[in-house]
Predict the 3D structure of the following.
Amino acid sequence: MDGVALLTVFVLAAFTGYEVISKVSSTLHTPLMSGSNAISGIVLVGTVAIAARVESTVGFVFALLAVTLATVNLVGGFVVTDRMLHMFRGSRGDRKQPPA
């Protein structure tokens, strides 16, 4: 693929992703974040695989940068998901009992 085709795919993917995410209700963002974390894990595995095959120094530096950024994205996603799950739990004493 040439550069224009790759740029077109990137812009269409960004637009589609924005439109899909903006239509999701806020209660479904936690499962969506979990799915995004799984995708980030796949990206991390891909960057490690690419880093293992690189032969030049410049390529290795870019691969190392990609592994670092993918790791930060993966860990940050899990931290945000954990915080969101804690927000849904609340404290134990303030929950109302359902009517019998």
Q: What stands out?
A: Residues 57-89 form the longest helix (33 residues). Residues 9 and 15 are 10 Å apart (CA to CA). The chain has a mean pLDDT of 83. The radius of gyration is 19 Å.
